[in-house]
Amino acid sequence: MREPLDSDQLTAALSALGVRRGDVLLVHASLRAVGPVSGGPEAVLAALRRAVGRDGTVVVPSFTPENSDTSPHYRARVRGLDAEAREAVRAAMEPFDPATTPAPSVGALAETVRTAARAERSGHPQTSFAAIGPAAGKLLAGHRPDCHLGEDSPLARLYEADARILLLGTGYATCTAFHLAEYRRPGPPRRHYRCVVAPRGVRQWWEYEDVALDDSDFGALGTAFEEAAGPGDVRTGLLGCAPCRLLRLRAAVDFATGWLTDHR
User: Fold this and answer.
1) Cα dihedral angle (70, 76, 82, 88), rounded to 10 degrees?
2) What pTM did the predictor assign?
């Protein structure tokens, strides 16, 4: 087993990959893929913040499928249960609170950002984002509750900010920014979603309509994007044991919009 990396080594590796001071960086991370790190997830966040500097902002998804009965997470959880047991699961679901609701399904780094001092979080009850840095408030403001990942979500603000995406030990299947392209292709299919919320402190189920999100072909989309990428659109390297990609978000979304239009 190799020696654990420290935060300074991680910072150096991020800078070598191409992370720059002042970057707005959307991070998807598998810390298990990185390997042992002295200081754990907090050290990884510290390295990211040093790499982007005091003018940079780190953003992560802080999604919460656990409070929905229309999510794949729910369907997996209740598979094989009878109606009474399914209803017990629904009755136990906690309503979304941006200040306190955890996001266990998106990993340890996302939870570390969400709970960090001075971090902010957008208000969508299913697909919130958390961020820390001077641009956090502007990037996360106005996340409309019936718009998961479209023009009224932080993804559109990240596009406007010319953000970059860090896939840290994860593949293109986790590239959330591709979902913005789903909204931008002509006539995307729509569906109904439902989750538990608590406006004015009263727990209730809320149903809304939005674009039907589908990440099943994001792996193939990412491979095609990388093959067609222009100079500087994709950079690759290692951080610990983890293969990493650093992407220009605008380039990824623009390519994905055309690719999804042609392939779906």
Assistant:
1) -60
2) 0.96
pLDDT the model gives residue 210: 98
CA angle 68, 98, 245 (to 5 degrees): 85
Location of structure tokens 């997996």:
76
Beta strands in 22-93 (DSSP E): 24-29, 57-61
Helix (H, G, I), strand (E, B) or coil at 25: strand
The residue written with tokens 């990037």 in the block is: 139
Find tokens 């794949």 and name the residue.
Answer: 72
Instruction: Report helix, strand or coil for 237.
Output: strand
pLDDT by residue (tens digit) across 71-99? 999 999 999 999 999 999 999 999 999 99
Give Cβ neighbours of residue 29 (< 8 Å, ≥ 6 apart): 44, 60, 107, 109, 110, 166, 168, 169, 170
Backbone angles phi, psi at 182, to 5 degrees: -60, -35
- On whether the CB atoms of residues 211 and 148 are closer than 8 A, the answer is yes
d(Cα 239, Cα 13) in Å, to the nearest integer? 6
